[in-house]
Write a structure and sequence with these properties.
By secondary structure, the protein is mainly alpha-helical. The protein has five helices and no strands. It has a domain of 66 residues: lambda repressor-like DNA-binding domains (434 Repressor (Amino-terminal Domain), Orthogonal Bundle). The chain is globular, with a radius of gyration of 17 Å. The relative contact order is 0.18.
């Protein structure tokens, strides 16, 4: 009889699940990068065209779309999202679950992230 490997439910943050430092910040940056990439796809832009709109060079766009975000601060990513004519709302509220540490969450309206099809978001790597 073969045993199934034990599974552990995800916390919803893969960076926390992997025990990485600053998991909320990493997830927030990943979601901002995902939004930038989605807008590029929605508008049918090349990386060169997007770089021109954002005022950065193409290699930076490549790093964003590949999830190589260590060189980008959350401030820089938010500025790039704003350059794509996207509003950013920041709200602070009481942690409803005092048993867990407070966290940072980036959200966007349901269905606002373009994808190449089901499961495409999972193909984006984030460091």
């Amino acid at each position: 009889m073969t045993r199934k490997p034990a599974s552990i439910p995800s916390s919803g943050n893969p960076f926390a699940d992997l025990g990485m430092t600053d998991p909320d910040l990493r997830l927030a940056k990943a979601k901002l990068a995902q939004k930038i990439t989605a807008i590029m796809r929605e508008q049918g832009l090349t990386q060169v065209q997007l770089a021109e709109i954002l005022g950065v060079d193409q290699p930076q766009v490549s790093r964003i779309t590949r999830g190589r975000l260590s060189d980008f601060s959350i401030d820089k990513l938010m500025e790039l999202v704003k350059r794509l004519n996207q509003d950013i709302e920041i709200s602070v509220r009481q942690n409803p679950e005092p048993s867990r540490p407070a966290r940072m969450v980036v959200t966007y309206p349901e269905g606002s992230i373009a994808a190449d099809g089901p499961g495409s978001a999972e193909r984006v790597r984030f460091d």
